[in-house]
């Protein structure tokens, strides 16, 4: 089934007459629209794409004749949607509870006298299983991401600042026709002990570990990638934690297969670090899903109830962070297969010293 068919199958199972999508991420997932101001109404037999004059031509170019287009200024969209709901006799409308604000919900209730069904969990489930087209785009995006890493290695040396590397990284990604999928993390020395450090003017020094965590958006879908490298040699403990994280990453990859619990994968990864005596220095989850957003279902954490399924795309990204000294994270983005996984990256994991 295609995505619209999946939405309608869910509607039929739950006695929902219509589904209204308003978040840019869900609109993009269903339609491929790359703009940021649109709504989609799906009924049993029709699908409407509502946007304003700024985006109507763009939508038609990107989406062809899949949808019926309605041009409406933002202030009049509720009125236009109201007419469509009435036309189709809508008694139960599926909405995004996690996106609809209190004030918007009040407007819905004032305008539309009907039942509401919350469809967020179903959308997360549908989005977590990638289509063959989405997987193909992720492979291409991953090629660009790895090429960016290999490119930036030529600029890594003592005296170069984190901002210098950020500028070169973003320039390279833009030259490939992409943009970063999130603000890149480029953290050196003591900054690398911060899992989500903010890029600074700090200059690379001998003995530093340098963690670079970034990705790109390729044709509407994200990638994610992390490697840590050393600058002019590193002390024994930092090299040791690097090898522990590498072992944890490899163990996590080998644990992945369709049918395994996400929490089981997290435990495999976490146990490697705990048994090495550094469990207190790995506090974040092992990974997450990736798609039209950089963080999606499933969650690869100790408390996750998600079960991995074929064609989910997830990250495996253990880390150890020693306050005041530095840190290591190694991250791969992989597709879950029936028997294991497909790694989108081939970048080496032995410690690189620049």
Structure description:
With 354 residues, the chain is α+β, with helices and mostly antiparallel strands. The protein has two domains: 3-128, 3-Layer(aba) Sandwich (Creatine Amidinohydrolase, Chain A, domain 1), CATH 3.40.350; 132-343, Creatinase/methionine aminopeptidase superfamily (Creatine Amidinohydrolase, Alpha-Beta Complex), CATH 3.90.230.10. 36% of the residues lie in helices and 22% in strands. The chain has helices spanning 3-13, 24-31, 56-63, 77-87, 102-111, 120-128, 132-153, 162-175, 236-255, 262-275, and strands at residues 18-21, 38-43, 47-51, 68-71, 92-95, 115-118, 179-180, 185-188, 209-214, 216-218, 221-222, 225-230, 287-289, 296-300, 313-316, 319-322, 326-329, 332-336, 341-343. The strands form six sheets. It has a six-stranded mixed beta sheet with strand order 4-3-2-1-5-6, with helices on both faces. Strands 7-10-11 form a three-stranded antiparallel beta sheet. α7 (132-153) crosses α8 (162-175) and α9 (236-255) runs antiparallel to α10 (262-275). The protein is elongated and about 70 Å long. The N and C termini lie far apart (49 Å). The relative contact order is 0.11. The model has no long low-confidence stretch (mean pLDDT 96). This is Aminopeptidase P family protein. Pfam families: Creatinase_N (PF01321), Peptidase_M24 (PF00557). It comes from Guopingia tenuis. Keywords: Aminopeptidase, Hydrolase, Metal-binding, Protease. Residues 137-338 form the Peptidase M24 domain.
